[in-house]
Amino acid sequence: MPPAAPEPDSRSTILATGQRIMSRKGFSAVGLTEILKDAGVPKGSFYHYFASKDAFGEAMLSAYFEDYHGDMDVLFAKPGLTAAERLMLYFAAWRETQGAFDCQGRCLAVKLGAEVADLSEPMRLALKAGTTGIVARMAGAIEAGVADRSLCVTEPPAELAASLYHLWLGASVMVKIVRTQAPFETALRATRQLLGMTLPLR
User: Fold this and answer.
1) What does the DSSP 8-state code read for residue 52?
2) Rounded Cα distance, 114 and 192, in Å
3) Contacts of 186 (CB under 8 A, 6+ apart)
4) How many CB atoms lie within 10 A of CB 108?
5) 16 φ, ψ to 5°?
6) Which of 89, 92, 96, 194 has its CA 20 to 30 A from that of 82?
7) CA-to-CA distance for 33 and 121, rounded, in angstroms?
8) C-alpha distances in Å from residue 199, one per residue of 45, 87, 149, 151, 195
9) Are the C-beta atoms of residues 65 and 126 closer than 8 Å to each other?
10) Mean pLDDT across the stretch 142-161?
11) Global pTM?
12) What are phi and psi of 102, to 5 degrees?
């Protein structure tokens, strides 16, 4: 008689547990045994869904960015706000989540980006697709800001969005190094200047 198939939510449980642990320890430092023990899932369930640890890492990154993109879509469609206000809410949320010194599953791209890009081509491509999606959504928000006149920019929105993402990604790394929020304050001032925002925040 064949073994019973894993529970339907086993895959999401493994992904969520791996994301939480790896966001704290990194990818290479975490073994499958640790993830499965914490998730309460047998090893057979893991290999039912993932052919290898690298395949798991690729799926974990894809799931992370899918949720992240969904959150961005909700925020950038929030009614009653200008595009500039929505962007400032986005960066405020970035500071709140990415600035946590004890990051628990919320800053996977910052934590794993440099490490896994050199370890696995599929994981690098998952990171590339995810970050490209972030930049595209930021570019759309900037275009909306130009249209509603809440932003005044001189660069093409796509180029500006990429510059802002790189700025905030670097600030996220520096926050973890210096253990203060100063890099985010610097990034916010530069962001407002690049977006042509002169009015005070609400």
Assistant:
1) S
2) 28
3) 171
4) 24
5) -65, -40
6) 96
7) 24
8) 54, 14, 12, 10, 11
9) yes
10) 96
11) 0.88
12) -105, 80
